[in-house]
Amino acid sequence: MGEVLVIGGGIIGLAIALELKQQGVAVTVLSRDFKQAAAHAAAGMLAPQAEALPPSPFLDLCLRSRALYPSWTQHLEEQTGLSTGYWACGILQPWYEAAIHGKRSAEAEAEHWLDRTAIHQHQPGLSTAVGGGYWFPLDAQVDNRALAIALWQAAQAAGIDIQEGIPATSLKTQASRVTAVITSTGEWQADHYVLAGGAWSAEVLPVPVSPQKGQMLSVQVPSGEALSLQQVLFGSEIYMVPRRDGLIVLGATSEWVGFSPGNTPMGVNTLLAAAIRLYPAIADYPIQEFWWGFRPTTPDELPLLGSSPYNNLTLATGHHRNGILLAPITARLITDWIVQGQADPLLDYFHYARFQLKDGISGL
Ligand SMILES: Cc1cc2nc3c(=O)[nH]c(=O)nc-3n(C[C@H](O)[C@H](O)[C@H](O)COP(=O)(O)OP(=O)(O)OC[C@H]3O[C@@H](n4cnc5c(N)ncnc54)[C@H](O)[C@@H]3O)c2cc1C
């Protein structure tokens, strides 16, 4: 394989670039804005089980990625000397009494169901309205911002050419091949191209990826106070992700408002009310930060992975609310596909042809 050019330097683009480089491929990354990436906005939950994904190829993909996480982050940490904050802390999914009465039965008999007494023993400080919940000991978290920085540094140290501040505006094509990527600074050519532009991917190629906005905020456990949250809380209206340094990340809204920026009173109010209801102690914790980001979302909320209408363009986008979780498996499968031409059978389920792409490009 000759040179590969990756469009997008978020978690997916960088993870792929690094894996390709480790296979001996020369890689350039075009990155419009590192800080813009959803990689910085996310909560970092590695939560295929808490997400209650039904048995499906997508669940298989998520479970395979979760299994890769310990060694993938350990390797990154050894390469860079930086922590990624990977923490196999497990995820607790508390249920309010009223919801249990509506939904109980078979599910409640599942292996990790905790009844009222058990869940309050397991996690002191929960609302008294919590009547039970699920415990997912294999779900985990990573500090997504630290991970993005570690990936960036590892990529630079490995000799990947990262062109920060250079957006791709369109593709130059001839028949079924991409011949160049057009940018504000001219044309960039390579033997193979990867589209990993997150929520902005449709600006380069008419893929059905739209931005779904998520608002977030964080609070800090006051100094001197013991860290009472030692696992992620994944409630029905809110999730709370405690970092080891006492920061607690709260999220997230799901909004269809295009790329409109900013936190809103309604968004923040909804998150705070749900968080205080679930875990009342946080009402007095100092707020640290508000932010927002854009999930790259396809109509069926599944990613677009693998081949594209162009022979030398690979798609790696549309990871919606699980892109942090899916970074290692995406990097592995896309690299095998590009370098060895090996398509893992799972890739079939995430092929672009399940959608009618706009502007006739599917007709190539
Ligand atoms: C609020 C929120 C919470 C989330 N929580 C979780 C979570 O807990 N767990 C989880 O697994 N996932 C979570 N996600 C989802 C996850 O963040 C995304 O799926 C993931 O970041 C997508 O990675 P990406 O690299 O495709 O896109 P991004 O991380 O958004 O990166 C895309 C990058 O490409 C660049 N780019 C775009 N277009 C171009 C172009 N034309 N030229 C050059 N560069 C370009 C952008 O500037 C950006 O830097 C969350 C997302 C949000 C918004």
Notes on the protein architecture:
There is one protein chain. The chain folds into 2 domains: 4-82 and 143-209 and 299-363, FAD/NAD(P)-binding domain (3-Layer(bba) Sandwich); 91-139 and 211-297, 2-Layer Sandwich (D-Amino Acid Oxidase, Chain A, domain 2). Helix content is 27%, strand content 27%. Strand 15 and strand 16 form a beta hairpin. The chain has an 8-stranded mixed β-sheet. A 6-stranded mixed β-sheet has the order 8-2-1-12-19-18, covered by helices on one side. It is α/β, with parallel strands linked by helices and 364 residues long. The chain contains 8 helices and 19 strands. It binds flavin-adenine dinucleotide. The site of flavin-adenine dinucleotide (FAD) has 46 residues, from helix 1, strand 2, helix 2, strand 13 and strand 17.
